Amino acid sequence: MTEGRFLEREKLTSLCQEELTAMQRCRRGSRQAFEVFVNKYMKDAYFIALGLVGNREDALDLSQEAFVRAYRHINQVQPGRGFFPWFYQILKNLCISHLRKRRHRNANSLDAEGCPEPAASQDVFSPDEIVGKEETKNAVWEAISKLDDKHREVIVLRHFRNMSYEQISEALFCNKGTVTSRLYYARKRLKELLSKEKGGGASGL
């Protein structure tokens, strides 16, 4: 094992141990211990919610509510399981419920300002190659808003939060093959939407 991989593994082990310790303290009612999870996942929670619901204020409210519910039900986390996959289900369900209540909202109302840029990853998805760079951000987020829930979430988790396939499969409670398949069809649909946007045909979607 190279020194770099060894240090990375040691760091991961340390982080896991930190979460396990915090989880044990949370089970005993420590609010201070729960701050470990808030501080670690607050940014991810906000941007995931933003990617799913497309509005900054709603994303902030939903991510905060998810942490509140997580703290109240922290004892439901099975021993030995990580916090984030369990927390993600709470956040995801809140976002889906919110979208169902506001399904009448036009997809074009997605608030692209403040949305994250695609994170660097080994899977290259380059919307810049499909639409002009100045228009890319708005076009991409508008296209994302038109994906169905299961395809939108894998795009957000992989390309905007830079999660690995293993992390996504754990968060979604599905196997790696399912993640790979959903990403393939999500990217394919996004490219279709962005190509039509470039050609001026997106308004008919």
In short:
With 205 residues, the protein is mostly helical.
Task: Write the topology of this structure.
Layout: H1 3-27, H2 31-53, H3 56-72, H4 83-101, H5 133-145, H6 149-160, H7 165-172, H8 176-199
Model description:
The chain has 205 residues and is mainly alpha-helical. It has two domains: 11-105, RNA polymerase sigma factor, region 2, helix turn helix motif (Rna Polymerase Sigma Factor, Chain: A, Orthogonal Bundle), CATH 1.10.1740.10; 110-200, Winged helix-like DNA-binding domain superfamily/Winged helix DNA-binding domain (Arc Repressor Mutant, subunit A), CATH 1.10.10. The protein contains eight helices and no strands. Helix 2 crosses helix 4. It is globular. The N and C termini lie far apart (51 Å). Residues 6-14 and 201-205 have low confidence and may be disordered.
CATH architecture of the largest domain: Orthogonal Bundle
Strand content: under 5%
Distance between the termini: 51 Å
Number of domains: 2
Low-confidence regions: 6-14, 201-205
- Sheet with the most strands, sense and barrel status: none
Q: What would you call the structural class?
A: mainly alpha
Number of strands: 0
The CATH class of the largest domain is Mainly Alpha
CATH topology title of the largest domain = Rna Polymerase Sigma Factor, Chain: A
Number of helices: 8
SSE order, as H and E?
HHHHHHHH
- Integer-rounded radius of gyration: 18 Å
Q: CATH homologous superfamily of the largest domain?
A: RNA polymerase sigma factor, region 2, helix turn helix motif
User: What is the helical fraction, as a range of percent?
Assistant: 55-70%
- Morphology call: globular
Average residue pLDDT: 79
